[in-house]
Write a structure and sequence with these properties.
Blueprint: E1 6-11, H1 14-21, E2 28-34, H2 39-43, H3 58-68, H4 72-79, E3 85-88, E4 97-99, E5 105-107, H5 110-115, E6 126-128, H6 133-153, E7 158-163, H7 184-201, E8 205-208, H8 231-242, H9 281-287, E9 311-315, H10 321-328, E10 334-336, H11 347-350, H12 353-360, E11 370-374, H13 396-403, E12 410-414, H14 417-430, H15 455-466, E13 471-475, H16 476-481, H17 483-493, H18 500-505, H19 518-524, H20 529-538, H21 540-550, H22 555-558, H23 560-567
Parallel strand pairs: 1-2, 1-3, 3-7, 7-8, 9-11, 9-12, 10-11, 12-13
Antiparallel strand pairs: 4-5, 4-6
Helix pairs in contact: 6-7, 13-15, 20-23
Length: 572
Amino acid sequence: MSKSKTRVFIYGSCVSRDTFEHLDPEQFELVAYVARQSALSAYTRPVELMAPPTLESQFQQRMISGDFASSLRPQIASSAAGTDLVLVDLVDERLGAYLLPDGSVITRSLELIQSGAEQYLPQGAQYLAFGTQQHFEYWQTAISYIGERLRHYMPQATVVLLDIPWAEWSETGEKTPDSFGVSAGDANPVFQSYAQFAAQSLATQVISLDPSEVVSSATHPWGDAPFHYAENVYLNIVQRLTGAEGRVIWGAGATRTMTADLPVQQDAGSAAGASGTVPERASVQQRLAGAVQDAQAPAAPLRRLEGGPNFLIAGTQQGGTQWLQHQLSRHPHVDVVKDAAPFFSRPGRLTKDEEIQKFLEPFADGSKPLRGHRSPGYFWVADPRSEFSPPRKHDTAAAIRDMLDPNAPVLLSLRNPVERAISAYWRHFSNAEIELGAGIFQTPARLGIVDRGFYRRHYEDWARTLGPERLRVLVFDDLVERPRVYLQEALSALRVGDSPEFWDSLKPKVKVGNVGWLPQFKKQSPITAQEIAALHALYADDIRFMEELLGRELPRWHNVGRLVKQYTAEGK
């Protein structure tokens, strides 16, 4: 078989683009270049509420039109057969995105800003700033979706994330300029969280450099910026990626001049060569051998945490866990840290010393004997046999077993699974994670909208892993109707002595209702009586199981008529 080139698909911006320019053109060729497109835009429906602005540059026009068309998705499918290597960077996320009223998203790119199109956005458009909790939560679902598409259409391709920090200093020793008011020192910690999640969701191999290894260059063809590096930085990346030296582009001994619009092969399918055969996968791996970390390497063993939480609050989203956190923290012997970021469900965090230290820091105070950690996303066990379940998930209960005190109690605050599913559906729809018009049974399995309500499966797995004696189920209905009883159940599970001053000062107020933005989303994507009836039938066994486990009846969980009246248009 004749030697074939490694075919490269770029999804990113200048970091991937400039790295590609430094690859040997005799060994690498470009099949597609998707830039100026946030993962949020790529994941959501194409923009129909406004047309893309008209730009003079053909390249810029193609990129911004692709952003409006959410072109990454079809591009992945059409380029699948002709791609060996996918290069990804996250620079285009830095300016955030606009969520439009119909659920579509426009990337806030340099081209969008310079065109003046921002002032013509539809009324009701919401700006999602990069680094905010709202943006990060939306983006996590979007990048996970892109990972699924890459694995589905390009299982043979190597996916590499270029996790290169912004340069704080130029090669002349001067401070790098800010990018839209953001300095490298401020941007790098924010990008770190996104890069860690992207590496996990895309199942990528990662090329990382230390901040001390990157400097910018005022002689970069596209100007001085914290992500326009000196040429030796790109040569370093190429060396780590391929194991071979890269080519010099603009320095002494340059072999060619860079161009803003990289050449894009028009027919990705023709990349197989004149014979029409696809080169063996082994040849690509040989070119990249030793350059990247093996994404499938065995996981490092987990270690017992010292000084961390000694109880957990889990359960379901919209199930009262945040209220419980606030109330318990008022007790003189109990503290629940405010940070609810998942830890035990994120395998990328469990073996890294810096991630473990970051998780443990809020517990270092130690002024109260009981220290709690809350995350409502933990209580979820996948079943690949179920059409509603993702094919696999990290074993969160096993991580809790291996890393926490073996006697640490776990509070599970659970809500009627039908109401939980409805609440999750509207929440994900409002976050632009569900296509307009998709019913509750057509939602992506990775969101768990239906699957999280199969309480029997989740509880039995956690009981086998942790022991049933460590689990205490609390019922959301009690929180609403009898909040003091609900709270007493939690304190009893924690084996906390009574505190008259705690009860005397406590004024538990429980407000269950719509947040301001929810009514408009209910109108856009209503729940039907048929869907509620189907959900109730689907969860019938789980409801019976919970009644047996608790030794009590849960009448509100059986009242389909009440649910129809409360949650559907026909019930109003």
